[in-house]
Records
---
Amino acid sequence: MRQVRRLAAVSVEASRLRLHVGQKATDAMALVPELATADVEPEADAAALTALVDWCVRFSPAVAADAPDGLFLDITGVAHLWGGEAEMLADFQGRLAQNALPFRAAIADTPGAAWALAHFGRDGTIAPPGGQGDLLKPMPPAALRLEPEAAAQIERLGLRRVGQLMEIPRAPLGRRFGARTLERLDQALGRSAEALRYRRPPTPWVDRLAFFEPISAPEDMARVTQDAAAKLCARLEAGGHGARRFEIAFHRVDGKTLPLTIGLSLAGRDARRIARLFQPKLETVDPGFGIESVTICAYAVEAVSGRQARIETGPEAAVEDGLAPLVDRLVNRLGSERVWRAAPVETHVPEQAVGRQPALGAPLSEARPWDRETPRPVRLFRRPEPLEQVFALLPDDPPRQFRWRGRVHQVRRAEGPERIGEEWWRREIGDISITHVRDYYRVEDQDGGRFWLFRAGLYGDPDAPAKWWLHGLFA
Amino acid sequence: MSDFRAKRIAALVAKVAAIESGGRADAGVLSFGDAALDGKLAGGGLPLGRWHEITGAGLEAETSAAPAAYAALMAAPLALRGEAVWVLRRDDLWAPGLAGLGFPVERLIQVCVRDETEALAVMEDALATVGISAVFGEVEAVDLTAGRRLQLACEKRGATGFVIKRRPFGGVGRKEAAGSIAATRWRVVSAPSEPPAGEFGLGNPRFSVALERSRGGRSGAWILEADQAYSWEAGDVAHPLRLVADLGDRELAPAQSPAVRRAA
């Protein structure tokens, strides 16, 4: 493998000087001594393509990147928003040109035909429905997105146009040039479907708002958030649906897209509530030179039966005052792990006995509830705290005195021990030891403070002397 | 003559109460079921639709086990009427312990917040929510503004707030705010328990409770016992706290017929 520097891409001006992709850099320098080159950065190119794909969501939610330098936009059913395919293409071209991006675009029935027209046809071609075959005929075979070797072999055999390939019977064509060639031809002509890898799963629950003038004032952004949500929610309501997750994307004039996401604990479609959840996050959006459009998507859409009625409980009670909106506000502000309901877990190990369930919508726990008759502390320390100067009269007696946080406690009354052992059925049998036990005592000191202490390990084990810990506090 | 004065004073007290409530519907009171306690509280019970302050003493100001348990016991009858929210800064509240005291844990939403301001904001938000009857919050201090905001939130739906004063671990005690608009302020510490005669071990949880401040009422100090704690009956009685006689052999007062009284 020889180390040769080659041209990976050339500008329009360079191509006029007969420089081409794949040319050796030294040859190019010899032809054009004042040539300016820069190292190729595939990662940066990919990132730029991703940004462009994100930007294109303003035209249609179904965008597929075509690495390294193209993208497919599925405009089925959206062109009428611009007044037609020609108007949409003009708008698209105009916006890309404003960003000083050199590009070629074409519209056709199939991704394959559009690709061929964009790469080899006239820029801005719009193929009439079903008319891509005629447009493809005069193009070179490379327009079919073939492997370079296959395209070169086809050309070497004198087949210089796609039209000639189309005339060859299918079976010999497939035998001669491979099934891949046949497949690409079928895809371009719409005889077989092509699966594109869209940027995100397209959801039919998407709506957009575009503005005549870019907006940037915070109150305007709050307003359009509500308007966009209302637009989408009206559709959700008409279909009897609600969604659990909403994503709003602000498209800036400079082509950047800033998304925000919120979640609901119960599927909903109340625009005011949704807008209110977006409200605190809006200040994180930097409008830059202005925002020219917003798109809003609903995910996790499910059927919601019945209309959301206003709950009339007070003089001005509204839906926003209910429990579900409160939980949503808290979860969106603090994070879902900070809002929970305690649910029993069937285990003997105290620190694992409490499971956390979402505050709303969790299924009823099937675990046995906690035994109310065994006293359990109100505060349980996440890490048991070590005790010092513990005196116990007999090995299995509760301590008579202990020191915790610098204070000596004289034990007046005590209960115990309650032995809690390792749950041997949860681990490998070889790791289990009978000395891994905790003997819990409930003790009361001279002032009435009640503590939950335990001794880890057994007395008489020379390797691991028993240690005392404080695990929790009773009322 | 004296009868006339008493009537006049009663009328004035009613007038002042009407001005204080600002025309909103009275949320009623929660009776302790014991005349000794109820008599010290305005309206004959723990006023609902207000917020109450519960503090500990000594180490309890940091660990806050007895104040939290006392607040849960006091509010247990209330929590049966709706949902409850407990706002924490350290998530060391342990649901099995609350369940043992008779608190309906399945109706409790726990929220762990990051700082003091957030705790107060969440409390306020929860208090103004339909369907929530009791909100507990573990905060260090409530200044006058925050207290007023809590009060307004309480008045919105008649929910009752319980502010449990708790200092962060290792923190220095802040100076108490000069004034507070809490309806009541309780200072709660654990009291030595008394097992039934002839039994070993610990008795039912007892609290030494001081009512330091009571709006429209008087202060007082008692020893209370949660006599149904750690039994399956916990939570089934009208009020889980019983007064322990101050003098003599500290006998448990007989259960009276406690009832939640709605103010007319």
Note: The first strand of chain B starts at residue 29 and ends at 30.
---
Amino acid sequence: MLIEVVNVVILALLAVTALAAVRLNDLFAVTMMFGIYSLLATIMFVVLDAIDVAFTEAAVGVGISTVLMLGTIGLVGRRARKASHRPILPLIVVIITGAALVYGTLDMPRFTDPAAPVHQHLGPYFLNESPDQIGIPNVVTSILASYRGYDTLGELAVIFTAGIGVLGLLGLRRRKRPGHEGGAR
Amino acid sequence: MILTIVLATLLVGMTAALIRAIKGPTVYDRILASNALGTKTILVIVVLGFLMGDPSLYIDIALMYVLIGFIGTVAVLKVSEFGDLGQSRSRTEEDHS
Amino acid sequence: MSTAIEILGGALLITGAFFVLIGATGLLRLPDILTRIHGASITDTLGAGAILLGLAMTAGWSLLTGKLLALLILMALLNPSASHALARAAVHGIRKPWLEKEDS
């Protein structure tokens, strides 16, 4: 009961924050809204018992992405330009896609349903077999690092490439000036 | 029971901070609201951990949150005062006035 | 003995919740940014401190207590620093405290 109330409140705050981030014109304020959004999303993940995702959201959403967006603001300025066209066609496409996705979720088993297929075959298999096959006590680690090892390697490559790209974009205009230590005081 | 009251209070406080973040006339109001929301988020995570029975993991998240949130706040303030993260120009007296 | 500590912890929790409410009210109702910083930092220090201390008292003595105290010390160090930096940036950026505005 309590968890449901927290869910409803946090989801309502998330929706309000997202709408505000869309409506605001000042990019700095939008960045603050994104920070608030990921704070709320972290609470959401904690409520859903997904501690590792909450860790990631806390580190990436609040720390890294805020700093990156602020660096971008430093390059491009703070005002959002007025849109030059009315986005009717993209809106229709987005609405149709969203409706199709929502329609697709109707066939999914209920959240935390013990009779769901994923809990019938895969879960027990990994829980029973991974100590013998892999030998790591932590099941999540053995799945991530061994069963899905190539997948994780690919993810690391993608993240590394993205990091290099972001650094290239943000560090492009960096100019060294004598007697200036980055404005830090 | 007491924990539930504390959680409800924190949620009310988060709502108030969000209202301030949306209304806030200046940028600093929004930064302040985001900061206050961060504090309340940490408290909500810890209280939720105690409510759901296994607090130690949740407290680890909260600890990390404090540290990273501070970095984020300092970066935000730097941009709000100097215009960027110190990439391209130095602070001069004209910026200041 | 343990009951007394638990009662004290509960009282601290209620106190913390009260201060969180005061901070939220200040954040909403006070007239300008500097006064709002003053109001909101009540939550950061007194509210968070009382709640974390109360949780540590109700939880009993374990590793958890150490983590809660570390969290408490970190928040007591970092949040006032952030508030101070924010107030400094706001004074530089706005330069019109509320008292001056009342004259005009």
Note: Residues 88-97 of chain B have pLDDT under 50 and may be disordered.
---
Amino acid sequence: MKSGSNLEKIFSAGKFAVTAECGPPKSADGNVIVDKAKLLSGVVDAANITDNQTAVVRLCSMVSAHLAADNGLEPIMQMTCRDRNRLAMQADILGAAALGIKNILCLTGDHGSFGNHPQAKGVFDLDSVQLIRMYKNMRDEKIFDCGEEISVAPQLYIGCAENPFADPFEFRALRLKKKVNAGVDFIQTQCIFNIPKFKKWMEEVRALGLHKEVKIMAGLTPLKGAGMAKYMKNFVPGMDVPDAIVERMAAVEKGEPQQAEGKKIAVEMIKELAEVEGVAGVHIMAVEWEIAVPEIVAAAGLSPRPAVA
Amino acid sequence: MITAERKPLDELLAMLEGKDKVLVAGCDTCVAVCLTGGEKEAEILASELRIKAKAEGRSVQIEHTSAIRQCEWEYLDMIAAKVAEFPVVLSMACGIGIQSMAEKFADAYVLPAVNTNMLGMPQEHAVWLERCGACGDCLLADTGGICPVVRCSKSLMNGPCGGSHAGLCEVTGPNKEEIPCAWALIYDKLIAQGRQDKLMEITPPKDWSKSSSGGPRKMVREEAKPV
């Protein structure tokens, strides 16, 4: 075991993993995290604690991860290169490890121009590939980036994201290989709506043998309405939402019926994605709709979550 | 070349409030080439400021001059007599020129008329593109001659990120203009050169101590010093 996290144990036991996303509030109200943690505890194996997601300031991911853990939800702490240099990223991971946080997700981070402080200086001292390698070296070689020894190394389960729908498509599986070479243990993909394209990407991933080297979690976002589907299609960077999905959402009445349709699509997609060879789990990103997660997980036949020792 | 844009007139007027004797100083090198702060632009700005003052019924003395290069002492000597006549100098040079003026003419109140913005390449007439970040550790040999430090919005060393779409960056410029994805360009170039293997190498963290992160830089060429 690299970290002994629940997520790592689930994978080690050969179980299909389920993770969700838990977004901290734009305030000092830690109870928001406590409530979300209680909602998701036992429903998923672990949950991503986002780090100033979409470059909007929020309660920090380390403290939120700690609050989640205290309330029964295993955190996957996100860490972006946008807001920290290599000193801060190493200091924060030592702090996180000291708090018992074991899963880390290495991200370059959304560009600051998308957020609420576009005037901020983007750090980008490292990129996500370099961050993965730095953390792997801290864990396995017990060294800081500068080469100095660490007396007590952080025990980490290292994750990252990958977008199968970005361009150049023919490099996407190879870029994942680069992250695997850097030392990543698990990956979560960008939200999948275009399943045929995802399957094509997985074919390339399998051809490179990557599915045997890294745990691949298929990412998906339940749609809350047709408006959201259109917005994601047209305005969210790196998103590939087929017209058929938008039309299917728009075909039902707004409000409750569209929410139900969104959940239904998500369940169908989970079932289909779980059948794809090499997919080891599913990552449900219900943006500010965490309340929908328990129902979706149950309807997909993934409840209760297995207990692993 | 160094590029700069003139500050908005209102900002200049606020800077010059209460100052009635002003020399507008152009620079005939980089900022002249980018049509921002050469002799011609200095003349135009001086006349704009005079017209504004006249409209407000203020009596002012606003003239212009220009140096071949404001960043070199010997060229500043050539305008020294003129500068001595004015307590306030509005420099239209890049940040280097403005500072040279402030250092050389310690008695004058030297103010900036432009915002220096980049090391840019003139792509076509009146269009400049950022091409160099002066990072002090050039990696163009490994990236097909395309700089990821300034041409990738996130300065990725191992791109392209998940925001690359159809050859474009997910980030758009200040006027919503499209930005080519530097890593899509690097990818195409390295493939065309048959250097696919290069794309699979993990580029290690960059040594930013050679950039401005290492503190103000100084270059000395001992061998070129006069004996």
Note: DSSP finds nine helices and nine strands in chain B.
